[in-house]
Amino acid sequence: MRLILSRIAGSGLFWLMVLAAAGGALYVYNRPQELPPAYSTVEVSRGELVATVSATGTLSPLITVLVGSQVSGTIQSLSADFNQPVKAGEVIAQIDPSLFKAGVAEALANVKSAEAARDKTEIEVNESRRNLKRVASLESRKLVSDSDVDAARSLLQANEAEYRVKVAAVAQAQAALDHERINLDNTTIRAPIDGVVISRSVDVGQTVAASLQAPTLFTIAQDLTRMQIETDVDESFIGMVAEGDAVSFTVFAYAGRSFSGTLAQVRLEPIVEAGVVKYNCIVHVDNADLALKPGMTATVSIEVERRPDVLKVPNAALRFVPSLPEEELDRVRAQLQPGESILWTPTADGLEARRVTSGLVGERYTEVEGEGIVAGLPVAVPQRKGEVLRRRYGGISLF
Q1: 56 and 231 in contact (C-beta within 8 Å)?
Q2: Phi, psi at residue 70, to the nearest 5°?
Q3: Residues facing residue 39 across a β-bridge
Q4: pLDDT tops 70 at residue 172
Q5: How far apart are CA 36 and CA 325, in angstroms?
Q6: Contact 369/356 with Cβ under 8 angstroms?
Q7: Is 366 left (phi over 0), alpha (psi -120 to 50) or beta?
Q8: Tens of pLDDT along 209-237?
Q9: What pLDDT is attached to residue 31?
Q10: What is the DSSP letter of 395?
């Protein structure tokens, strides 16, 4: 019995070792192997080439007005809301006017008091003038002294000066009344332009404070059928763009749809971000169908040049470097003149280097010229990322 168990145990161990060895061999045999770098081919083509400068920006209405409050108080009522069209002069909000009505009443009382004081002083001036006339008449008959005449004249002058003070006080009180009336008028918030409310920042019962700056209550866009894009262009490309350039752009909301516009302004003020200098460019956009909304992110392409009939190759063809000895690559590069690049064309013996001069550079293609470069000529380009490394299995494939 003991001998039988020993044989069974020995047999199991043997087969376990055999399976382990077979699995290791199978793994080594089927292990993914990296192939030498390969290439694909494309043909030199002839056609239109457009050079663009790309950027991103934000859509906004062409004219936007922030409506604020010049006085502090509690919002009593609101007559406008999001997306609501409004007309210029239309009441869109009301601030509680109670305190301002009281201020107007107080200022009006001050005006009346100042006018009464002025009238009283005017009476005193007239009395002083008559008194001086009587004293002067008596002085001509030697019935009063010269000092009496001088005293009457001084009193008249003092009363006239006091009258001028009272007149100024009336003007000051009237100005204060006008100020209070303006504040009362400002409790009624009116739309400054025809447009659409795109933002409302307050609710009924909320207190607004205008002590430091006018708080924004509403944002009104004058015309949503005309929009603009504010985009920043790097200083490396700003010399290529100019006002009037055609612009195309896309937004995430409408995949596959391209919109058009016109570069309206290149602002001179530099914008420095992380050491990079950029310049703000304004693009005007027609939005007749109201598809575009304020705040959308736009991917912008500014057309800087267009050539209708040129020889062109994919940009990747000029970046392609074949798997050749470094000495051979250095020998080819040494023959290049300033401004020249290399295109590699497949032949029966491998790849042949052709020197070309690059012209207009587009988003995907580059204009090329050179000896023997014609439409239809095959050129090498790097394989797509998923094709560079392949998994090759020999023998039995497990997957």
Answers
A1: yes
A2: -90, -10
A3: 382
A4: yes
A5: 13
A6: yes
A7: beta
A8: 887 677 899 999 999 999 999 999 999 99
A9: 52
A10: S
pTM over the 0.70 mark: no
Place of tokens 């009237």: 174
Which of 292, 289, 310 lies closest to 300 in space, CA to CA? 292
Closest CA to 360 of 324, 326, 291, 311: 311
Q: What is the pLDDT of residue 178?
A: 97
Structure tokens at 102: 């009281």
SS3 of 224-264: the string is: CCEEEEEEEEECCCHHHCCCCCEEEEEECCCCCCCEEEEEE
Ranking 254-258, 337-341, 360-364, 394-398 by mean pLDDT, the lowest is 394-398
Please check whether residue 282 is in contact with residue 261, taking contact to mean a CB–CB distance below 8 angstroms: no
Higher confidence at residue 261 or residue 390? 261
Residue 315: what are its φ and ψ, rounded to 5°?
Answer: -55, -30
The dihedral through the CA atoms of 370, 375, 376, 381 has a sign that is positive
| 341: enclosing H helix or E strand | strand 340-347
Q: What's the distance, Cα to Cα, between the start and end of the chain in Å?
A: 45
